[in-house]
Amino acid sequence: MTGKGQGFGFGLGKMKELADAFKKAQQVQEGAKLLQEELEQMEIEGESGGGLVKVIVSGNQEPKRVEIAPDALNQGAELLSDLVTAAMKDAYIKSTATMRAKMEELTSGLEIPGM
User: What is known about its subunit structure (predicted)?
Assistant: First the structure.
């Protein structure tokens, strides 16, 4: 047996790296809470038909409201349905991109040793 006090193979430098990584992870977790609140308050607008139909969702894709221009009602039920669906897809794509960008901002610079 070698009684050199090697421990688990972690030198002091590795322990500091690990402690720093935990600190960063904790900051990211706190940032994630704030980000969730921010995303809930956001309004992201998807539209179709040149603005005839607008769908507004939060940053975390919760539907908030739908706005339909009077001219859209004259298009008939089938076309109106297509316009609403297209506006929903547009809002979904925009909110997903926003969420991804915000998460990348939050986690940039996070490096965990050994990962």
Answer: Homodimer.
